[in-house]
Design a protein that fits this description.
Two copies of one chain form a homodimer.
Chain A (H helix, E strand, L loop, with lengths): L4 E9 L8 E8 L4 E5 L3 E2 L11 E4 L2 H4 L5 E5 L5 H4 L2 H8 L3 E3 L1 H13 L7 E3 L6 E4 L2 E7 L8 E7 L2 E5 L17 H8 L5 E5 L16 H10 L4 E4 L5 H13 L3 E5 L1 H12 L9 E2 L12 E5 L9 H7 L12 E4 L8 H13 L3 E3 L14 H11 L4 E4 L3 H13 L11 E4 L5 E5 L4 E4 L4 E3 L4 H11 L1 E8 L5 E10 L10 H16 L2 H5 L1 H20 L4 E8 L4
Parallel strand pairs in A: 3-6, 6-7, 7-8, 12-13, 13-20, 14-17, 14-18, 15-16, 15-17, 18-19, 25-27
Antiparallel strand pairs in A: 1-2, 1-21, 2-3, 4-5, 5-23, 9-10, 10-11, 11-12, 21-22, 23-24, 25-26
Helix pairs in contact in A: 3-4, 6-7, 9-10, 14-16
Chain lengths: ~550, ~550
């Protein structure tokens, strides 16, 4: 029985959060499966949980330990949460990378940036082209999304066909890239599909999604009506939106300027890979000064309020010689991702102080989502008509809601959050639970989320830091007194000598009273000093700071 | 000319953010004004800007320096952002506090909690009752809001009448407390109003606001349809909502249990002060076990995802013996305040994992705001028909939008953010700019936002902390080597001795090479060591941590 081939699915990231996608498929006898890894994405740190961290990705340990059986890495599309960690984790994975041309350009860039050989990235054409890696035959089915060349994967093994949607929406006119093609989905699915692994991001949006083409006219109208300069931001990778915005500008007699590297890179890649063939002429930012303000559109990066991006720069003051003024208009042609509300509001207020008219997404006129809403998901379920639906790309509540929609129709769905290995060739049976987690890029090194490093930072931030330096003589006696320095703590002026003075006095007293035995070990001293620090600080400032004791033992020379 | 009386308005907090309200009115000759302070509120800290801080309030320095001329403190209503800092700042303000009965109960509680005499809080009845403090005659005009006894202030001086709305909505049926009474507003305004100082919170909401009474039927229907236990959360101070929820429960055959101190206190105060006279019977939580699950409503605090509150407790597991199960329903009868989205989503996912059906505010069926929307604001402008509208209680963009609505009709409005002193008796002329800021409650002490304490914490959190302890002999020579400890930093295993070992080696080398002169002063040593720490860390881990050097100089005995 154990020699029987099985097809397993194991999400390592992305099924339990929106971000850091990483899905593993395996085929073969138990313990001898050959693998493909779909997407190697990142998610972004925040002060609440990950201060100082640069990027967050799924912990790849499970597949790293089995890397000799990893046949390929597949990237569905070039969003950061799908491709962002490829260069960082490649050294541990070491398998050929396959994706479509535009995605490949971005993936190669990530590889180079991290000192990896970009030649490991291979272009694959759209369906009906297929590649074979180990027991898998794979095809990239074009699907619409908010980035060019997004693809669903058609994964064939001896067990049958699986469709992994990646991120998608049912957009018949996405402006750049291939439209939603229900005929193609039906054709590919017609001989039966074992499982549909399906995007869940917008499952809570009850109305049918709108097309990218729907917002062009409203944006054009807005630009015609606007009296001063118009600036607009969106995700740099949303090449279609950039084109919609630029075209609206051209149609309303405005020249287009692009500020922010992410946008420039994406536009260049879209041309280089042929996914975009026309775009209104882009003016150099230096030439913008010669154009009347009411004849300008400035496209700026930083729609999520990122402090170093062009939007934040324009909100603060001059950015690359451009300056917004009273009567200008700023358009957020984007959705604020949960967690970024405060950063975005900060910018909205700065713009308001300049007298700039801000248009955000409240009206729904100037932005459409890149993900399938509930009715669109149901349409995909119907077209594919798989034996089983497995929701992915969502927080737990998204996965659950998505599964319930399927089950409510009498069909099968399985909730498989990160670490849940299910057998697709056995109706989605839960066969194993695997430990999963997060890996942080922290400056140069990758560190584990549970290494304690970030916990220490959070504790210093919440509680402040008391540093105590002691010099212990050869005979175990404390030399001079203790030396205390506090960092991130108020030095209460109402106490004599301040907080530091009070700490030194009390620590000296406690150490003088202490039995020789408890001074013999560093641990004993640390325990005494920490306890004293807690008591003194709790009393004076109402907090128990982190306490670090540095013990210098004088050596007998 | 300078002897002429003038009426000035100076927001110290609340006009530039939503929260920490504090508005100063002064009347008298320039430099000799007598003052009243309206509201002494707090806002809440976050990890991004204020880790470890307990509460944030407006810096009261301007009025503290003139406290001998402060006639009274007025509290418009009992929300934390209006009353929360009264006990903390009272020692510096020392003026009698006036408010209505329910608000007074909460204010006295705040005073006692902070060791202040609650007898400084005086009850004032609703309009037409008036009190006179210095040159001011004041009345509390009942106004509807999401807490009982919210009041607009009618501020009379020899210069004329000013109406300060506090927070309000135009609700003809607020369930608890006085309804919106346009006749009263018109009557009070009929002889002319110099200025309307007006809530701006919901200025971006384009539709007319709904009444508290509108949501009762939908909540009852939901409770009838729900199969298991129903739990619901809202702000504890929203007594009307608690009553709406409890009444819906009673009407659908459910017993009511309340968990969370904030709610219990508010309900008790509402009864004690007579603002609420009936409420369905409340069951002790211990008795809940004897009631079938589908006959229970649990009212829980913590609608904003607060970790220690009842909602978070119920999402995690058992809370006071109560446990949610698959098939139960959890209702968020509340709005998620920007900045709390991630905490709330965390709870939504925990509830989803338990199989609990979560109903949030997406549908708009189960929550109404406590603030006036744009058309309601316009109605208030019309009723009062003041010479001048001054928007307050909002971020800058709210103030600006609110002023533009008024100006678009050809009327006068002035934007006066925190620190902008305007002369209401002179058409809102900007007469002075005053430095304003924030004060933090940090454990026990109050500290200034610019004291550097919080900046140090943020730096430790973002960059980690390198501690270096040195022992310098009488002759200025370094004794033994340096002793380095890192906190909040990865100890890179790829380098010999780890990060700490590398730091010690390099610091020892640098100090050995250093000229005697640069070792003579602590500053010289610190500069050398910090520079070395930066170089080594940047090289090995790609970061420049905070570096604190503790120098123990051995004394000649």
């Amino acid at each position: 029985m154990t020699k029987k081939n099985r097809l397993i699915y194991l999400p390592l990231g992305g099924a339990g959060e929106i971000g850091m996608n990483m899905y593993l498929y395996g085929f073969g006898p138990k313990g001898k499966e050959r693998y493909i890894l779909v997407d190697v994405g990142v998610t972004f740190p925040d002060m609440d949980t990950t201060p100082g961290v640069d990027l967050i990705m799924a912990d790849p340990s499970y597949i790293v330990e089995r890397a000799d059986r990893l046949e390929a890495i597949i990237i569905t599309h070039a969003h950061e949460d799908h491709v962002g960690a490829i260069g960082l984790l490649y050294p541990q994975l070491q398998a050929p990378i396959y994706c479509r041309k535009f995605t490949a350009a971005i993936a190669r860039n990530k590889m180079e940036k991290n000192g990896q050989n970009p030649d490991h990235v291979h272009d694959v054409g759209a369906w009906p082209e297929q590649i074979t890696v180990g027991p898998f035959t794979l095809g990239f089915m074009p699907i619409a999304h908010s980035i060019p060349e997004a693809s669903a994967l058609v994964i064939d093994t001896a067990a049958g066909r699986v469709i992994h949607t990646g991120d998608f929406k049912n957009d018949p006119n996405p402006i750049v890239g291939e439209p939603y093609n229900p005929e193609l989905v039906r054709e590919i699915s017609k001989d039966g599909v074992l499982a549909l692994i399906c995007d869940s991001t917008n499952v809570f949006s009850p109305s049918k999604g709108r097309s990218e083409a729907d917002i062009g006219p409203a944006i054009r109208e807005m630009m015609v009506a606007a009296k001063g300069l118009v600036a607009a931001t969106t995700f740099g990778s949303n090449v279609a939106r950039l084109k919609t915005l630029a075209q609206a500008a051209a149609d309303s007699g405005r020249k287009v300027v692009v500020v922010g590297r992410a946008m420039e890179t994406m536009i260049a890649n879209a041309f280089a890979t042929g996914v975009m063939t026309d775009f209104p002429p882009i003016l150099d930012v230096e030439e913008a000064h010669d154009v009347p303000r009411n004849k300008l559109l400035v496209l700026a990066t930083g729609s999520q309020g990122e402090r170093r991006a062009a939007t934040a720069g324009l909100a603060r003051g001059k950015y690359r010689g451009l300056e917004l003024k009273s009567g200008d208009t700023f358009l957020f042609s984007s959705k604020t991702i949960p967690g970024n509300e405060v950063s975005v509001a900060y910018i909205l207020n700065q713009l308001a102080e300049k007298g700039v008219n801000v248009i955000d997404d409240t009206s729904g006129l100037y932005h459409v989502s890149g993900h399938a809403n509930r009715p669109d998901l149901e349409e995909m379920h119907r077209l594919v008509n798989a034996d089983l639906v497995v929701p992915m790309h969502g927080q737990y509540r998204h996965l659950r809601e998505h599964a319930e929609i399927v089950q409510a129709k009498g069909d099968d769905a399985v909730i498989a959050p990160n670490g849940t290995m299910i057998e697709l060739s056995h109706g989605g049976k839960h066969v194993e639970s695997v430990e999963t987690g997060r890996t942080y890029l922290d400056g140069k090194p990758l560190i584990g989320a549970l290494d304690g490093v970030v916990r220490e930072r959070l504790q210093m931030a919440m509680r402040g830091h008391v540093l105590v330096s002691l010099v212990i003589e050869e005979d175990g006696e404390l030399l001079d007194g203790s030396w205390v320095q506090t960092v991130g703590l108020p030095d209460n002026p109402r106490v004599d000598g301040g907080l530091e003075g009070q700490l030194e006095d009390e620590i000296d007293k406690v150490l003088a009273r202490a039995k020789k035995k408890s001074l013999a070990s560093d641990e004993g001293i640390e325990a005494l000093v920490s306890r004293t620090s807690n008591q003194v600080c709790k009393d004076i400032i109402g907090k128990k700071p982190v306490c670090t004791v540095l013990i210098n033992r004088l050596m007998v020379e």
